[in-house]
Design a protein that fits this description.
Length: 271
């Protein structure tokens, strides 16, 4: 199994295909396995690098006292790319992974070529914009996990932003052991990092092409963020996937694949 020491964390990664590099950043509380159904198409013309973010999947879980912020996660990605000898990369992030992708582009603009951001729950934007937070807070999730355990905390979190039937399917799926094995401080860190990250003042500095992806049936918790980003990122295009909600964003539909392939095949921008 390929591991690399990245920013002090033993990080699991996989590389598939040849061509220009494309890094995949999975969603919160999951692993790189969420990309399996898209990998064959993405790797047809690309060198695809998928990795498990710190505290996720097969990567090392940092200690409770270690900081868990968007800036730390961006440094993890930088260290991974440094270790693999990749100077610049296109990024495709889903949910929390999309927050890390944007954080990396802000910290290292010369290393991020294009950004695909699928429903980043960047609720720190609420300090400057009318973001629908669905009543969620890191403190509430932390309290529920302390009093009732990880399963109850995740159930509360997911039911606030996903259809009830989708939550039930998720907890019956093959991802159940992965979800329930996440330490509570990782889950709390995920949410608090999203609450703390407010890049409003720097969005105009993001000169890279950005493809924003949002499901047509997704909760306002996600779509309200995408609308703010579409309005403030100078080179952004918003793609709405009909009939799709947050949990089905990465289904390999023709609409998604054609848009992604066209976007990645576009000319390199002048930045």
């Amino acid at each position: 199994m390929p591991y690399i020491r990245a920013n002090g964390i033993n990080t699991y990664y996989e590389i598939v295909g040849d061509g220009e590099p494309l890094a995949l950043l999975h969603n919160d509380a999951m692993s790189l396995d969420v990309w399996r159904r898209l990998l064959p198409q993405l790797a047809a013309e690309r060198r695809v690098i998928a990795y498990d973010r710190r505290g996720h999947g097969q990567s090392e879980v940092p200690p409770r006292e270690a900081p868990y912020t968007v800036e730390v996660l961006a440094e993890d990605l930088k260290a991974l790319l440094d270790g693999l000898g990749i100077p610049a990369v296109d990024l495709f992030g889903c949910s929390g992974g999309a927050i890390t992708a944007l954080g990396f582009a802000l910290a290292y603009p010369e290393r991020a070529r294009r950004l695909i951001l699928a429903e980043p729950p960047m609720i720190g934007l609420r300090r400057d914009h009318p973001i629908d937070t669905a009543g969620l807070s890191g403190e509430t999730i932390a309290r529920i996990m302390r009093e009732q355990g990880v399963a109850a905390g995740l159930d509360y979190w997911f039911r606030c932003v996903l259809p009830p039937t989708r939550v039930e399917m998720l907890f019956r799926s093959r991802y159940r052991p992965l979800l329930l094995s996440r330490p509570p401080w990782i889950l709390e860190g995920i949410f608090r990092s999203a609450e703390a990250f407010n890049p409003t003042a720097r969005l105009a500095d993001v000169r890279q092409p950005v493809l924003l992806i949002v499901g047509g049936k997704t909760h306002r918790y996600f779509s309200s963020v995408a609308e703010v980003l579409a309005a403030h990122l100078p080179n952004a295009h918003l793609l709405i996937l009909p009939g799709v909600e947050h949990a089905t964003l990465l289904e390999p539909s023709e609409t998604l694949l054609s848009a992604v392939q066209e976007f990645l095949g576009s000319d390199e921008p002048n930045r």
